[in-house]
Amino acid sequence: MSDQGTDEGYARGLKNRQISMMAIGGAIGTGLFLGAGAAIETSGPALIASYAVAGVVIFLIMRALGELLMYRPVSRSFVDYAEEFVGRFAGFATGWVYWLMWVVTAMAEITAAGIYVQYWFPKVPQWVTAAVVLGLLFLANLISVKVFGEFEFWFSMIKVVTIVGAIVLGLAVIVFGIGPAGEHASFAHLVSDGGFLPHGAGSALLALQSVMFAYLGVELIGLTAGEAENPRVVLPKAINSVMVRIGVFYVGALVVLLSLVPWTEFHEGESPFVRAFDAVGIHGAAGIIQFVVLTAALSSCNSGIYSTGRMLRTLAIHRSAPSAFTRLSKRQVPAVSITASAVVMAAGILINAFVPEKAFAYITSVATVGVLWTWGIIVVCQLRYRRRSDRGELPASEFRMPGAPWTGYLALAFLALVVVLLGFSEDTRVALYVTPIVAAVIAVGYLLSNRSARVKQPV
User: What positions does the domain Amino acid permease/ SLC12A occupy (predicted)?
Assistant: First the structure.
């Protein structure tokens, strides 16, 4: 198929190296660098299996997205596919849920950036750092997509180099017994202290809820289709790399960390990388990881500004948002949409300052709802597309999802399981409380949007 007309006026300014690095580093966030400590404490080495199983499902979801992208590569992919294969309400809901997901994620990340910077500059007010971060990344996205891509390239590079360095150093310590940790480091730690499943299979199952959200952002590559220099070449390669990067950066990193130090020595609130680096004898490990975590937060915020700007413009094109948001600047970026999204994100600074921590948790749980819905709708769209292409109603994609439709059903069943698991933890149960509220707001918005569209139609 031709790519003509699929970029919606955007400049194809994202280089292959930028998209490839975004694909490698896109799913590496604070969940691995910080959150894994709590998961290791409750699941032990079984967390490795949780990441591996969830990684397989993520790969299936990405292959489903890849099949759709090769059928029709558009920057507004999620909304277009949902509207075409499920219905207008699905497109409306998917666009707004995804926009909300990234807005609240960015709110959380700019707040986190303020906290991380206080490690070095404790006297700098948290809101000042948050405002500076949002302002700089907003300007970067406003200049051109090339600047966004370059920022994301280097943010991802820092994360990737850190993890690869940790793995190589850790393997050297384990295999050759070098350094202070060399005497005790061993792969035997993976099955000692209660075995691979010290708290039973149930703990590994419950860990899936947090593990899945560590992969949030992996689908972002779908929004780059209309701005990639050569989407039909670079996107399949990037998607196929998902299994490798999950295997190396998540499973591989955890295997090494848990072999350097027994799992019983990892605790909630402490980065497992800091604990392992301390054991190896690297002075200043906390500062190194603090810098990498800050980079991960900046990367997430950068992605949030990029994705919300594109998604808000997509909604406007579909007449699901004010028409002013369809405008592109002279540099071919959706400046009005980016600005509006950034203004809403700035509310996160105020929320953090004036609203109790519990209320902020309710708001950020929208991200939980958003990512499950988005991943699910991608698979549903692929299943319906494949059915129609097999009947000859649509051209077949050159990048087909393996094992379809059964792999699609498997992915949907897994996502449904994660929804059920959310109810087992007090920290994640809030997402289930927020879901009906979000659904009601979107339903009302859809009705108002339809009514407005009918009023504007010429008689």
Answer: 19-454
| Residue among 353, 287, 320 at smallest CA distance from 92 | 320
Non-local CB neighbours of 78 within 8 Å, separated by 6+ positions: 94, 95, 98, 219, 222, 223, 311, 374, 377, 378
d(CA 158, CA 241): 18
For 14, which DSSP code?
B
CA distance 299 to 140: 12
Give yes or no for a contact between 399 and 225, defined as CB atoms under 8 angstroms apart. no
Q: Are 227 and 313 in contact (CB under 8 A)?
A: no
How confident is the model over 288-323, as pLDDT tens digits?
Answer: 888 888 888 888 888 888 888 888 988 888 888 888
Direct distance between the N- and C-terminal alpha carbons of the chain, in angstroms, rounded to an integer? 38
DSSP 370-433: HHHHHHHHHHHHHHHHHHHHHTTSSPPPSSPPTTTTHHHHHHHHHHHHHHHHHTT-HHHHHHHH
Residues 268, 38 contacting (CB under 8 angstroms)? yes
378 with 65: CB under 8 angstroms?
yes
pLDDT digits (tens, 9 = 90+) for 46-99: 999 999 999 999 999 999 999 998 888 765 578 889 999 999 999 999 999 999
Strand partners for 354: none
Q: Among all chains, which residue has been given the structure tokens 């708001």?
A: 363
Q: Quote the CA–CA distance of 51 and 56 in Å, as a whole number.
A: 9
Residue among 140, 132, 144, 158 at smallest CA distance from 302: 140
Which among 287, 256, 257 is positioned nearest to 272, based on CA atoms?
Answer: 257
Q: Exposed, middle or buried, 300 (CB in 10 Å: 0-12/13-18/19+)? A: buried
User: CB within 8 A of 377, min separation 6: which ones?
Assistant: 78, 81, 82, 86, 90, 94
